[in-house]
């Protein structure tokens, strides 16, 4: 069967495909991150520190929701890519319909559970009483936004699976603009629009994510009216859903491990000073920005890998691996050099406090060198993920964080190295991730078993 829609990534220039695929993802991530910073500034300036604190205590729960969305929909993207490479439209339709079935179940469980248990969850994580009411209202509306968040992720993953990352970028930009306009209007109230305070910020996110979802659904419905990524119904097929869970669940756990690792690092840093925790918070945000190009490349590598496995062209994966690293080198190396050479300038963008800046400088000079490992391990992880070996990525992450980073940071921070021991533990864990990921890639174990498409069709 000939696949007439989407973008075939199994022929043509590999570096061109990687850049064209990764660039819109990177721009979308930068837009979203940039706006999250602006949103925090709006809330801080208009509503004060209690509102900022209410968002802060809700943030780990929001991260868990994002991890659930991205984990489940990553599975959809990989499976669709694999079937698309195999030109198996019937399989793509089954995956699309099953993914929508999983989405409906997830949305109902998370939304209803969140609305009923918001206050209990916040109490469990130690939310102070003086911001409990603010945080509860904000979190409940955030749970209402989960449906839009999940579906927008799902639509983007279906489009990524057929090689399209440009249209999801358009939706992100439009959604961000809507959010940016609504935020101050709903927070402060203008004319007939009531003043909603912190809930206004949550409603702005709810409306913007809903708008992006509706636009995405309409686009897929009409652009791909007769194509298999357009859902024809809900399919509760055990075999297909198990394939989604086989990739989605480990991906979710892997992302939760990353969040847990950050929580432990925060606990270790808190022992030193308030300045240290402020510096670590800023430095962690810098980490996430630095990783964006590498993560975009990882997603490109995983999709190209999945399509080529589906097409029976696994010989192209060596080229995908090589070019992923080659393209990463100038980008990540330049960022690493900037962080090591001009750490003070970078820190001053975020804060004016001298002690916080000094701690941040020390962090960036140590961890900034470790950014170089991102050149490699995000690419090898992309190949492994594209081959459907999400459990292996989960194990690699577990070893890096739970076996190396957390114990080593706790140990070294109690030596004469002090807080620098935590920074070195982070770099060492980057190195361990790289070694394990490369070992798994070169061992060829990710090739074990037939392609996912063959597994599911058998």
Number of helices: 16
The separation of the N and C termini measures 18 Å
**Helix percentage range:** over 70%
Unreliable residue runs: 450-458
The averaged pLDDT comes out at 87
- Helix and strand pattern: HHHHHHHHHHHHHHHH
Radius of gyration: 22 Å
Beta-strand share of residues: under 5%
- Sheet with most strands: none
Please count the beta strands (DSSP E, at least 2 residues each): 0
- Give the domain tally: 2
Structural class: mainly alpha
Q: What's the shape?
A: globular
Task: Give a short overview.
It holds the Pfam family MatE. This protein has helices at 14-47, 49-85, 89-124, 129-144, 146-161, 166-188, 198-223, 238-270, 274-310, 317-341, 343-350, 354-370, 374-386, 390-412, 419-443, 452-457.
What structural keywords apply?
458 residues; mainly alpha; 2 domains; 16 helices; globular; disordered C terminus
Structural features, described:
It is a single chain. The chain has 458 residues and is mainly α. The chain folds into 2 domains: 13-236, no CATH class; 247-452, no CATH class. 82% of the residues lie in helices and 0% in strands. The chain has helices at residues 14-47, 49-85, 89-124, 129-144, 146-161, 166-188, 198-223, 238-270, 274-310, 317-341, 343-350, 354-370, 374-386, 390-412, 419-443, 452-457. The protein is globular, with a radius of gyration of 22 Å. Mean pLDDT is 87; it is low at 450-458.
């Amino acid at each position: 069967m000939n696949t007439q829609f989407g973008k075939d990534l199994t022929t043509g220039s590999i570096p061109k495909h990687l850049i064209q695929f990764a660039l819109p993802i990177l721009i979308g991530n930068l837009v979203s991150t940039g706006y999250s910073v602006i949103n925090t500034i709006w809330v801080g300036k208009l509503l004060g520190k209690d509102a900022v604190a209410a968002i802060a205590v809700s943030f780990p729960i929001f991260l868990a929701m994002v991890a659930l969305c991205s984990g489940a929909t990553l599975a959809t993207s990989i499976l669709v890519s694999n079937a698309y490479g195999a030109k198996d439209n019937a399989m793509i339709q089954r995956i699309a319909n099953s993914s929508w079935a999983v989405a409906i179940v997830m949305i109902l469980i998370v939304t209803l559970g969140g609305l009923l248990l918001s206050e209990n969850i916040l109490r469990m994580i130690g939310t102070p009483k003086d911001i409990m009411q603010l945080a509860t209202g904000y979190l409940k509306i955030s749970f209402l936004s989960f449906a839009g968040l999940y579906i927008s992720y799902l639509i983007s993953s279906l489009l990524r699976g057929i090689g399209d990352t440009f249209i999801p970028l358009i939706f992100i930009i439009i959604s961000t603009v809507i959010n940016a306009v609504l935020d101050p209007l709903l927070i402060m109230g203008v004319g007939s629009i009531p003043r909603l305070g912190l809930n206004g910020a949550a409603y702005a996110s709810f409306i913007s994510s809903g708008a992006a979802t509706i636009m995405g659904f309409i686009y897929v419905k009409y652009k791909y009216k007769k194509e298999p990524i357009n859902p024809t119904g809900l399919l509760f097929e055990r075999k297909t859903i198990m394939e989604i869970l086989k990739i989605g669940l480990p991906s979710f756990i892997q992302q939760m491990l990353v969040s847990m690792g950050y929580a432990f690092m925060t606990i270790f840093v808190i022992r030193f000073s308030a300045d240290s925790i402020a510096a670590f918070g800023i430095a962690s945000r810098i980490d996430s920005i630095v990783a964006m190009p590498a993560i975009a490349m990882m997603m490109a590598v995983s999709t190209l890998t999945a399509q080529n496995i589906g097409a029976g062209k696994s010989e192209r994966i060596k080229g995908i691996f090589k070019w992923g690293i080659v393209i990463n080198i100038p980008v990540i190396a330049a960022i690493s050099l900037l962080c090591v050479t001009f750490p003070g300038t970078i820190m001053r963008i975020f804060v004016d406090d001298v002690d916080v800046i000094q701690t941040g400088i020390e962090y960036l000079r140590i961890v900034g060198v470790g950014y170089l490992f991102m050149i490699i391990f995000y690419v090898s992880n992309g190949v492994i993920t594209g081959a459907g070996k999400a459990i292996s990525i989960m194990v690699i992450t577990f070893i890096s964080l739970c076996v190396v980073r957390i114990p080593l940071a706790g140990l070294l921070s109690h030596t004469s190295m002090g807080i620098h021991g935590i920074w070195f533990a982070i770099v060492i864990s980057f190195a361990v991730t790289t070694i394990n990921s490369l070992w798994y890639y070169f061992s060829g174990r990710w090739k074990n078993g037939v392609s996912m498409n063959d597994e599911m069709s058998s």
